[in-house]
Amino acid sequence: MTMLMTRTKRTKDAGCNAMSAQFGTTIMRLRKAGKLSLGDLSEQSGVAKSMISQIEKNESNPTLATITRLSQALGTSVENMLSFHPDSTALVQKASRQDIPLIQSEDGLCTLRIIGWMETVEYAQWYDFTAKAGGALESSAHPDGSVENLSLLEGELEVRIGNEVWRCKAGETLRYRADRPHKITNVGTDTARATMVNILAHAVQR
């Protein structure tokens, strides 16, 4: 009986450690995908910056209250944050709409839904982009060599990088250097929608 209890405890501990590590990794990837610093996430969630750092490094076991605050600040659910499947099947992950993180532009007219897999966010970032008429999304430079792929599904968009400007209509795709500040503006009269994929520097073949 004692041996059985010991084995059970070890199994539970291993599961908890694996879940904790997965949670920390998820927090870091969601934070980076949203271009948030530790300070930004701390301010938005109310969780201390040092605590977030410890969680990401798997040096702390957060309480449910902390997990909830971080989940809300990152635009996802507690269930999605804690999902861990050691015995993988053919389905890697299923995400409901409320589990998909949402980023909004400063003017409130543009939204980015992070629909790419968080496991690959350091290499490729995949977004569902929507912009109301007149909406503009300004982005800072990504790492050197990064390329952004913008495929327009509806409407008309303008992409500006420095003094260069390109226009894109429904059915067209623009690929451009994203390692410098860039701005995407809806120049049409209707809402524009596009799929945006960022290939980050270390994933680009040189």
At the fold tier of CATH, the topology name of the largest domain is Jelly Rolls
Secondary structure category: alpha+beta
With helices defined by DSSP (H or I, 4 residues minimum), what is the helix count? 5
CATH architecture of the largest domain: Sandwich
Helix content: 25-40%
Low-confidence stretches are: 1-16
Could you report the average pLDDT, rounded to the nearest whole number?
Answer: 81
CATH superfamily of the largest domain: Jelly Rolls
Q: Write down the secondary-structure element order.
A: HHHHHEEEEEEEEEE
**Strands ordered across the widest β-sheet:** 1-2-3-10-5-8
> Termini distance?
60 Å
Tell the overall outline.
elongated
By CATH reckoning, the class of the largest domain would read: Mainly Beta
